[in-house]
Design a protein that fits this description.
The complex is a heterodimer. Chain A has one domain. In chain A, 78% of the residues lie in helices and 0% in strands. In chain A, helix 3 packs antiparallel against helix 6. The longest helix of chain A is centred in the middle third of the chain and has 37 residues. Chain A is globular, with a radius of gyration of 20 Å. Chain B is an alpha/beta fold. Chain B has a domain of 64 residues. In chain B, strand 6, helix 6 and strand 7 form a beta-alpha-beta unit. In chain B, helix 8 packs across helix 9. The N and C termini of chain B lie far apart (38 Å). The chains are: A mainly alpha, B alpha/beta. Chains A and B meet through helix 1 and helix 5 of A and helix 2, strand 5, helix 3 and helix 5 of B.
Chain lengths: 269, 252
């Protein structure tokens, strides 16, 4: 078990170092940081709810950066195997296909953690500055716990999406196909709550079907906590948060298990 | 001599699997059987599409046979323990794009559970042998094709494997690079390593291999030594023998 963890760690480190040296990714981070900083200049144009809008802006900037990271960098890294045959170089050493899947997933997740941590840190600084410049009424509070929770929510959706990308990369050939299917998956995940809302009254069978589908296509909107950061409302109850956390972890583990099974069965030409 | 290690028994492989239903589909490999003895150097030769790379990918468990069995020291090729004993050189050197050779060596050391001291010693030995010591911390993307090929060699050799599987080891090398790799393979042979390599360059095969395996359109056409090839086909050179074995004598 320890040896397997070491092998997964070694591969995760490769993915992490590769990502940290990728100019396009560094450019993306620089752009995201610049966008967050631009909040300092643009909040003055917001006529009301400055606190709410500024928080929304900061967290959304981080979320959008994460999406770009997932749809471009993560999809590309997962296609190393097919496009560059890097997977042959890596698997010629004592690392199993399951460990390969987990190693790449962990490396990409570490990169996302770093990215979110950096953007969350700078974003909080920006919000503190804005709070100090405007009247107290705009920021009923700037709750650190709610702020951390809102970024944890962003990370949760990214983790769900990343596990799905890993699975699609195993099942499909071609980076573009994986990108398209991942985008479709994301759109379905976001569209299901709207459909559920549409069938809120009546059509119980359809509603049950759609609810069942949310197990396959998780409802990302439940992890959106950014509205709580400046409001004085209480944080969600612990059991609710624990339930969401368990769902995210279980979902990722199950999807990665299927991804590992797919990788173990497929030919790596 | 102990009969070891690498045995293929009636191995067949079809690409892509879905079109197996078509009547005229030829397999990439058909009922291939051979074994490799300890300390032997086997040269796998064939024209493009003969099945050489398929054969090597099967041995490395990158792809799975549709029928037949492959055993390396009695174990299936996917056995992780075997990986400690095998060094693999891919046809095209392929690395994650933004890494250095040092990063890759650290990964290889971790997967083979080499101690830091052992990894440092082995890495320095092979990096110096293959003239990559000075550039080990440079991005692998900045390497020339020949340097990338040599870097792949370092990664294949750093854990001191007993069996080497080399897919086109001379591919993309200039004459100096070829001479160096040729000398390296000769040296590895002298150390008693078991080597299987495939190549289009028949002069290299002539010089380096103890035994030849000729594949043509997925089928085995010849398995034996060079004198046996000449005896079987009445040839004077390896090229002539090879062309006669695959029925392309008219090219001469």
């Amino acid at each position: 078990m320890l040896a397997a963890t070491r092998r997964i760690g070694a591969l995760a480190r490769l993915v992490l170092v590769d990502g940290l040296r990728r100019y396009a990714l560094l450019g993306l981070v620089a752009l995201a940081l610049a966008v967050e900083l631009s909040g300092l200049f643009f909040f003055a144009f917001v006529p009301r709810d400055i606190g709410l809008v500024a928080t929304d802006f900061i967290v959304t900037a981080g979320w959008a950066t994460g999406m770009i990271f997932l749809f471009f960098h993560a999809v590309q890294v997962m296609s190393w195997g097919e496009n560059r045959r890097v997977i042959h170089t890596l698997l010629s050493h004592p690392i199993s296909r399951t460990e390969y899947v987990l190693g790449v997933f962990c490396g990409l997740l570490l990169l996302l953690l770093l990215l979110d941590g950096l953007l969350a840190g700078l974003g909080y600084g920006v919000l503190l500055l804005i709070k100090s410049w405007v009247s107290a009424g705009y920021f009923e509070q700037l709750g650190l716990a709610a702020y951390v929770l809102s970024w944890a929510g962003v990370l949760a959706t990214q983790m769900l999406l990343l596990s799905a990308i890993v699975l699609f990369s195993g099942m499909l050939r071609g980076t573009f196909t994986v990108l398209l299917v991942s985008l479709a998956y994301y759109l379905i995940c976001n569209g299901l709550p709207v459909a559920l809302e549409f069938f809120r009254e009546g059509a119980p069978l359809m509603r049950r079907f759609l609810q069942g589908l949310t197990l396959l296509f998780p409802n990302f909107s439940v992890y959106d906590y950014k509205g709580l950061v400046v409001a004085t409302g209480k944080l969600p109850a612990l059991p609710q948060l624990a339930q969401q956390l368990i769902f995210v972890l279980l979902y990722a583990v199950l999807v990665l298990t299927v991804a590992a099974a797919v990788y173990n069965r497929r030919d790596l030409k | 001599m102990i009969k070891l290690n690498l045995t293929l028994t009636k191995v067949s492989k079809f690409y892509p699997k879905e079109i197996c239903f078509a009547a005229d589909v030829k397999p990439a490999l058909a009922n291939l059987s051979f074994d490799l003895l300890t300390g032997q150097t086997l040269g796998l030769i064939g024209a493009n599409g003969a099945g050489k790379s398929t054969c090597i990918r099967l041995m490395m468990d990158f792809i799975r046979p549709d029928s037949g069995t492959i055993r390396i020291d009695g174990c299936p090729p996917g056995d992780r323990g075997l990986r400690h004993r095998i060094g693999y050189l891919p046809e095209v050197a392929s690395f994650p794009p933004n890494l250095t050779l040092s990063d890759m060596l650290r990964f290889v050391g971790a997967t083979h559970q080499l101690s830091k001291a052992r990894l440092a010693e082995q890495a320095e030995r092979w990096l110096r042998t293959l003239d990559l010591w000075e550039v080990r911390k440079r991005s692998l993307q900045s390497y020339s094709k020949g340097m990338q090929q040599r870097a792949s060699f370092v990664l294949a050799l750093v854990h001191d494997p007993e069996l080497l599987i080399l897919d086109e080891p001379m591919s993309g090398l200039d004459p100096i690079g070829r001479a160096k790799i040729s000398a390296l393979i000769t040296d590895l042979k002298a150390q008693g390593k078991t080597i299987l390599f495939c190549s289009h360059i028949l002069e290299d095969v002539d010089r380096l291999a103890d035994r030849l395996l000729i594949l043509h359109k997925g089928e085995k056409r010849f398995d034996g030594t060079l004198p046996q090839l000449h005896e079987t086909y009445g040839s004077q050179t390896i090229t002539q023998g090879f062309l006669r074995a695959i029925g392309e004598e008219a090219v001469c």
